[in-house]
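Entry type: protein chain
Record version: 2
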Amino acid sequence: MKSLEPITPDKFRPMHQKVCIAKSEILEKMRRQEEEAKKKVIEEQKQGIKAILEEASKLQASAEESALEAETKARPLVKDSDKPAGEIQEAATEAENLMKKSEEAL
């Protein structure tokens, strides 16, 4: 390392420029690190939201499946049928249970 020499007026301007350049490089490095940290946080939040949406999609699909099954079971109840009252009551109860199951899934 060279020995430190006094800064003369002739050397002041170049030294001042070097110091300013070094300072701006440090500030830019800090800004980039902060930006990367923000991007990382945003990416983690996106992953969390994706997981929630996937879970909601699964629950919705399950509820739709249960509702469709209940509708299929209840369809003969709507039409005129020659079934005995006991069978109609069983089918109605089963359809009602399936609808409760789909509501719980939601």
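Comment: Helices lie at 9-78, 85-105.
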